[in-house]
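Q: Please design a sequence for this.
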């Protein structure tokens, strides 16, 4: 059992590191390029959620993957006990890649004891990219369930994105 946990933990950490390397997050950051160092919400092993003409991309990861200067710039808590959830909304009505759009994003996490903690999202605009970031606290090997309400700009309805993920310190 311990070996299975170790393999799972290592696999998840390697996947997160690979995703962040692809996104260009690793390395030192100067304030001038800090905005481009936040990982844009890209799904690693899940499909984006389709909401009519919109796609919602999401990811959650340990906050230590974000350089300290970037975390400070966006008022995100950073450390081995904190994670970040990242949401991006794209209007795909005109083409497959779509265009980033703003929206209203809110939600919470819930642990296995059904304790809910609200997420406070901040909107980040980086060139043509728009995404929403919120930090959260977790314990080692904690499974968190996310419920995030997303209402894209121009849409008359909102939908709740639900996913769960185990976090490790």
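A: Design:
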């Amino acid at each position: 059992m311990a070996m299975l946990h170790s393999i799972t933990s290592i696999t998840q950490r390697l996947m997160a590191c690979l995703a962040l390397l692809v996104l260009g997050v690793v390395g030192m950051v100067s304030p001038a390029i800090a905005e481009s160092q936040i990982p844009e919400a890209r799904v690693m092993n899940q499909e984006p959620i389709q909401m009519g003409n919109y796609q919602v991309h999401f990811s959650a990861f340990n906050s230590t993957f974000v350089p300290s200067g970037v975390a400070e710039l966006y008022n995100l808590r950073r450390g081995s006990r904190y994670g970040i959830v990242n949401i991006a909304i794209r209007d795909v009505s005109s083409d497959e890649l779509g265009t980033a759009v703003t929206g209203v994003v809110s939600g919470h996490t819930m642990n296995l004891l059904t304790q809910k903690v609200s997420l406070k999202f901040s909107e980040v605009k980086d060139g043509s990219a728009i995404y929403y970031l919120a930090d959260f606290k977790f314990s080692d090997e904690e499974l968190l369930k996310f419920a995030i309400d997303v209402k894209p700009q121009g849409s008359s309805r909102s939908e709740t994105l639900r996913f769960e993920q185990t976090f490790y310190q």
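Q: Thanks. Anything notable?
A: Strands lie at 49-51, 54-62, 82-91, 99-101, 103-110, 116-119, 122-126, 129-137, 142-152, 159-167. The helical segments are 2-23, 68-73.
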